[in-house]
């Protein structure tokens, strides 16, 4: 068995921030999960539906791997991404990093991993790999999935080779920190304002605050959108609350990021944003509960209520992001 020495195999709530935490701690940089999420401008929203989808998808963050791409330059890190159509070359790339004493991040489809009990295809899943032997790969995943886990080499190969929505071509990545790291906290305001600007000015109506408003209108039709409401609606609610999002479709993580920032410097706009995202997190949990109840009971009124709450959420989050977008215009105390 070959493993990276002195690995801190700590699982957290979300897959990409879990993997980033493993890679960065190995580089000597230990940041909280909310701070990683916030510095990567990770919060967003998408209402995603298409003809080839069985059921609509609500997403609460930037697209897979976008967080990593945002975070690396903000922290002055060298991000090396490797992709290939060759399974053998993909494996060689991963083990070369581990043999050299460095954990490696992998993007894959979680459906194939042995330790996943819930078999749902998700091609944007990210893990950190820190070891291997003749039969297994040793990974760090979220707390929900067990933290330090293992999966067969066959299952890992299938997961990495999967094709479909959000998948990548055997993507692996490493992060290297310079000798003199810039102060991460100096990047808080740029990270927050970039996130706010993207949320407030989405290019299409499915994204940002406009996407939440659209979801509020369309969620009311979800009982007609499915041929198995007892399966699809509770599953949608589960993805919003439990499936690696930290609850409330990532709003809990962003709330905690803003709270951590408020401990570092004083800002009225920051306090407003934190207060409103505290409210938003509660409302998102309420939406998930209503969607689950609608699926289990077949009561369309629950979806009407969920739609109404989503309308409120669009306004709350728009107001929060407007306040946070003004951070760049003030001098924090």
TrEMBL record:
Domain (Butirosin biosynthesis protein H N-terminal): residue spans on this chain: 14-142
InterPro entries: BtrH_N, DUF4872
Annotated protein name in UniProt: BtrH N-terminal domain-containing protein
The DUF4872 domain, residue ranges: 155-324
Domain of life (superkingdom): Bacteria
Taxonomic lineage of the native organism: Bacteria, Bacillati, Actinomycetota, Actinomycetes, Kitasatosporales
């Amino acid at each position: 068995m070959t493993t990276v020495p002195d690995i801190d195999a700590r699982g957290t709530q979300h897959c990409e921030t879990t993997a980033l935490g493993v890679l960065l701690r190995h580089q000597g940089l230990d940041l909280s999960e909310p701070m990683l999420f916030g510095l990567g401008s990770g919060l967003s929203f998408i209402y995603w539906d298409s003809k080839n989808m069985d059921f609509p998808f609500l997403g609460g963050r930037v697209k897979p791997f976008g967080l990593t791409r945002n975070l690396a330059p903000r922290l002055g890190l060298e991000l090396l991404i490797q992709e290939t159509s060759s399974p053998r070359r993909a494996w060689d790339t991963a083990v070369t990093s581990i043999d050299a004493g460095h954990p490696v991040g992998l993007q894959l489809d979680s459906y194939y991993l042995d330790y996943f009990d819930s078999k749902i295809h998700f091609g944007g899943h990210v893990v950190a790999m820190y070891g291997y032997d003749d039969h297994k790969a040793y990974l760090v995943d979220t707390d929900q999935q067990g933290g330090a886990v293992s999966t067969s080499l066959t299952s890992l190969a299938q997961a990495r080779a999967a094709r479909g929505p959000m998948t990548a071509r055997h993507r692996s990545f490493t992060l290297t920190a310079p000798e003199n790291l810039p102060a991460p906290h100096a990047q808080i305001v740029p990270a927050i304002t970039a996130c706010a600007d993207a949320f407030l000015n989405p290019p299409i109506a499915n994204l940002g605050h406009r996407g939440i408003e659209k979801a509020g209108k369309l969620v009311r039709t979800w009982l007609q959108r499915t041929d198995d409401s007892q399966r699809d609606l509770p599953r949608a609610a589960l993805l919003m609350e439990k499936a690696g999002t930290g609850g409330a479709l990532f709003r809990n993580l962003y709330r905690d990021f803003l709270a951590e920032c408020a401990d570092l410097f004083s800002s009225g706009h920051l306090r407003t944003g934190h207060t409103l995202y505290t409210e938003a997190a509660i409302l998102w949990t309420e939406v998930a509960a209503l969607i689950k109840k609608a699926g289990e009971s077949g009561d369309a009124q629950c979806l009407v209520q969920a739609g109404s709450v989503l309308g409120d959420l669009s306004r709350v989050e728009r107001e929060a992001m407007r306040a946070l977008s003004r951070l760049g215009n003030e001098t924090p105390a």
